[in-house]
Amino acid sequence: MSATRVAIAHDYLTQRGGAERVVLTMTRAFPGAPVFTMLHDAASTFPEFAGVPVRSSWLSRIAALRRHHRLAFPLLAPVASTTRIDADVVLCSSSGWAHGIRTAGHRVVYCHAPARWLYQQRRYTQGDALGNAAVRVLGPPLRRWDRSAARRADRYLANSTVVARAVQELYGIEAEVLPPPVTLDVDGATEPVPDVEPGALLCVARLLPYKNLGALMEAFARLPAERLVVVGDGPDAKRLRAGAPPNVQLIGTVSDAQLRWLYECSSGLVAAAYEDFGLTPLESASFGRPAAVLRAGGYLDTVVEGTTGVAFDAPEPSAIVDAVKLLRATRWDEHEIRQHADHFSEARFCARLQAIVSEYQ
Q1: Do 349 and 319 have their domain in common?
Q2: What is the pLDDT of residues 216-242, one digit of tens each?
Q3: Looking at residue 127, what DSSP letter applies?
Q4: How many C-beta atoms lie closer than 10 Å to residue 153's C-beta?
Q5: DSSP track, 161-221
Q6: What is the pTM assigned to this prediction?
Q7: Are 117 and 209 members of one domain?
């Protein structure tokens, strides 16, 4: 059997996040390319993957792992290392595992971030006793495995300046910065979300401790005249819902049509997490809405202070309160905000990716 010309590898398709949107864009850049992944849960990821040839490992046969991919932590590196893809070029969409997949062809790594749980453990496993214990035991051998996998790549791409810097510091590899595109189509169908009134501020994030949603909710408790709608789900959902003030709505996962309606009807976005890229301010900008974000990480690439939003220095309630007040007090130019989002187009991303892959075919 002849090798597939281009194949795509991704850590796991078990959620709806920015990395999964990037993989869908890759499948449009390379129509027909199979997607190899260690875990696949069709009900939990984007429905568009139904039209893509997805090939998952044996881990996907275990329902508990599909629903809670963190339980598979000790198995992911061994499974990646024993997965072999027969292709001329394998495009690895990786946050820690897919870059370890084997191939006789060329390997181009698109790095969303070096493994956060290995190199930023305090930030990403806060409040997770089991996760912390696992990293303490498995961290040293996994860091060796991770660096060895990184060195096998023919090319490294990073989604932001801060990730490119981390790739250089950790692996000694110079990565080209190729920001992911905004793929939420502003012209697509919209669907109102029941019980949500227009005009609120929006936060779109997985409900995880490092997203700092507790600080956001405390800030809005001090802003009773404001309203915040939080889109997303995750392990922290029960705790956050129990502590939400009356002016904060946690509405869980929504469809793209509902998300478009929410952005369109919002007065802006608020985000307090340290993000490696920072996609949601760009999604908000594509609807002409400004953002108040943490002045760190990927947001430094995606928010232009004073033009598309404001920033605060720490994920603390008082700083967030001041930023929200500044956001409200500023007159924003919707056209200028939309123009900024246009620089992050899918066409530009696909063209560059195709040009890079063609160098190895």
Answers
A1: no
A2: 999 999 999 999 999 999 989 999 999
A3: T
A4: 21
A5: HHHHHHHHHHH----EE-PPPP-S-TTS---PPTT--TT-EEEE----GGG-HHHHHHHHH
A6: 0.86
A7: no
